[in-house]
Amino acid sequence: ETGVTQSPTHLIKTRGQQVTLRCSSQSGHNTVSWYQQALGQGPQFIFQYYREEENGRGNFPPRFSGLQFPNYSSELNVNALELDDSALYLCASSSKAQGAISPLHFGNGTRLTVT
Amino acid sequence: QKEVEQDPGPLSVPEGAIVSLNCTYSNSAFQYFMWYRQYSRKGPELLMYTYSSGNKEDGRFTAQVDKSSKYISLFIRDSQPSDSATYLCANILTGGGNKLTFGTGTQLKVEL
């Protein structure tokens, strides 16, 4: 069983630039969620995708956007980067079933540094 | 007030000790409770997952949920140096899909 994989592992960008982070879901999972984890904090929910549509969003501005592809892989895009966007970005996959909660399985994240 | 609170630690214990990690939450609508372990430079790894009040045991780990006091605990028996990590509690709202609300995590160090 292949776990959740994310790329790249590290990234350095300049304030104002745009960034795209990528995620491949765990085999058999159809739902992808993205979380932001600042240093010393717990992960914060950005949004979730199911069947290629956004299915829930946290308290993040519209410059955070995403995509889910037919093979359930996903991208997180952040425009107009700010210094506070520096964090570990975590992708998690799960298997959405009617009326059930499925535990999330996380990748090892992409460490984004904005200078 | 944060929805999920944890003491950040660090908590330092000798090898073989019983470790108690705690978490409180404020939202009564939380119905699902999880514990994740996160090693440095890694993603969170699911340890325990429970729905109801009471205890759930898995090997050296026991999760305890008291919904009446909104208190969640994770006990680790016979702690090992390999247990040194940050432990995150996470809750899910009823009808909230799979959105997890995390605490800040407690850093644990198990020393030889």
What is the fold's blueprint, element by element?
The complex is a heterodimer of chains A (about 120) and B (about 110).
Chain A: E1 5-7, E2 10-13, E3 19-24, E4 31-37, E5 44-50, E6 53-57, E7 64-68, E8 74-78, E9 87-94, E10 105-106, E11 110-114
Parallel strand pairs in A: 2-11
Antiparallel strand pairs in A: 1-3, 3-8, 4-5, 4-9, 5-6, 7-8, 9-10, 9-11
Chain B: E1 4-5, E2 11-14, E3 19-25, E4 30-38, E5 45-50, E6 54-58, E7 61-66, E8 71-76, E9 85-93, E10 100-102, E11 106-111
Parallel strand pairs in B: 2-11
Antiparallel strand pairs in B: 1-3, 3-8, 4-5, 4-9, 6-7, 7-8, 9-10, 9-11
Characterize the structure shown.
The complex is a heterodimer of chains A (115) and B (112). Chain A has 115 residues and is mainly beta. Chain A contains no helices and 11 strands. Chain A has strands at 5-7, 10-13, 19-24, 31-37, 44-50, 53-57, 64-68, 74-78, 87-94, 105-106, 110-114. In chain A, the strands form 2 sheets. In chain A, strands 2, 4, 5, 6, 9, 10 and 11 form a 7-stranded mixed beta sheet that branches. Chain A has a 4-stranded antiparallel beta sheet with strand order 1-3-8-7, with no helix packed on it. Chain B has 112 residues and is mainly β. Chain B has strands at residues 4-5, 11-14, 19-25, 30-38, 45-50, 54-58, 61-66, 71-76, 85-93, 100-102, 106-111. In chain B, the strands form 2 sheets. In chain B, strands 2, 4, 5, 9, 10 and 11 form a 6-stranded mixed beta sheet that branches. In chain B, strand 9 and strand 10 (100-102) form a beta hairpin. The termini of chain B are far apart. Chain A binds chain B through residues 4, 31, 33, 35, 40-45, 48, 55-56, 58, 90, 92, 94, 96, 101-109, and chain B through 4, 6, 8, 32, 34, 36, 41-46, 49, 88, 90, 92, 96-105.
